[in-house]
Amino acid sequence: MAFKQIVVAYDGTDEGKRAIEYGIYFKERIPESNLTIVHVYNERVEQRAVGNPGSAGLANDGYYIDPTQMHPVLPVENNFNRDANTHLVVSNSVAAAESHCLSILSENGVDGNFEILEGNPAESISSYAERIGADVIIVGNSGKSGIQKLFTGSTGSSIIKDASCPVLIAK
Asked: How far is Cα 21 from Cα 139, in angstroms, rounded to an integer?
């Protein structure tokens, strides 16, 4: 069985990078295959304070205290200074994932594509793989402990259930 369509799921983790390494391994041995790295859009933006932290009170920070509350409100030390600058911090950026994946491929002299998917990671990856007729999906091992997997599951396990082709867990 030759892998003509190889799909690698990348999530920005070390395990995801390991999955790319497996994809590169197969691509180098089967040069006529198509290697596609997919990343599911899951960008988070947070606003974080930077600068010199101060200790302003609740009223100075714009908090509203409802006088009808049954429990007394205790002042909490707030380390946010109104004069401090804030910056948006982007986690799991699509641009960063694409740049990272393409640089790994370039460093290894391997051609490949990068696709951005949206939605539930397992469903999106499985349906994309089926749509392009993938011969294999390569995913990283989540690194979750047994009890974590029991309660939250893992994307890899869900892909195994949903996929219409073999799934390789890169460990």
From this structure: 11
